[in-house]
Amino acid sequence: MLSKLTNVAIVDDHTLFRKTLNNFLSSQENVQVVVQSPDIPDLLEKLKQEHVDILIMDLFMPKLFGNDAVKIIQSEYPEIRILVLSMCTDMELLSGLLDAGVAGILSKTDEPEELIQAIVALSEQRIFRSRLFTEAMYWNKQNNFKKSGVAEIPLNDREREVLQLLWEEKSNKEIADHLFLSVRSIEKIRQDMKEKLGVRSTVGLLKYAISRKIIRLHSPEEDANHHMASAFL
């Protein structure tokens, strides 16, 4: 569960879904829904008045498409962690969201408990490896990285280990304990890597690490399941 009060904003053009989600989240300990919006322009107006930690948004929005909306929000409010909650399963679109800077992707068909787990992870500055997030990463690896013009940039063993632990959804505190370092040291390592690689987010770090085979995208068990599923496609 959340260890501190987390302010959440919801933007979805379906009123019943938005209000149902608000009621569910408001019943959770340390979750406070401070903004509800039917579209992005309304959200941007309300964000001027409210502090928001996590934004939950649909991909297909009236007036402004999700990918463009993410870029605007990231530009004006870089401290807000964006969680996409959508029925979209188009891997190219979802991969584009990772490029735009979202911190998590969930399907509206996922269990409510998974949404709470995602909010907890994002509030702790961790990633949440949902099925859609992992599949979008896999698609990105197969289709986008080979087009990247980013040159190979060497990382030391400690930086590589931090990246692997980030992929395993570890918090800064858990990584610090594992490496016998302070939390501040881990934060500095992460920031130094972002500057070195020219990326803005943890997702950007992970995408680079996957493209250079620094970390495994799937565990051996997940690889076996992926290949088995592919055989039936």
Strands of the widest sheet, in order across it, are 2-1-3-4-5
> Structural class, from secondary structure content?
alpha/beta
The global form is globular
Range of strand content: 5-15%
Distance between the termini: 37 Å
The biggest beta sheet reads: 5 strands, parallel
Tally of individual helices = 11
Radius of gyration over C-alpha positions, nearest whole angstrom: 18 Å
- Roughly what is the average pLDDT, rounded to an integer? 84
- Count of extended strands: 5
What oligomeric state do the depicted chains represent?
single chain
String of helices and strands? EHEHEHEHEHHHHHHH
Share of helical residues: 40-55%
Q: Uncertain spans, ≥5 residues at pLDDT below 50?
A: 219-224, 226-233
What can you tell me about this protein's structure?
With 233 residues, the protein is of the alpha/beta class. Helix content is 52%, strand content 12%. The protein has eleven helices and five strands; from the N terminus they run E-H-E-H-E-H-E-H-E-H-H-H-H-H-H-H. The chain has helices at residues 15-26, 40-47, 66-76, 91-100, 112-123, 131-143, 157-167, 172-179, 183-197, 202-211, 220-231; strands at 6-11, 31-37, 54-57, 81-86, 104-107. Helix 3 (66-76) packs parallel to helix 4, helix 7 (157-167) crosses helix 10 (202-211) and helix 9 packs across helix 10 (202-211). The longest helix is centred in the C-terminal third of the chain and has 15 residues, at 183-197. The protein is globular, with a radius of gyration of 18 Å.
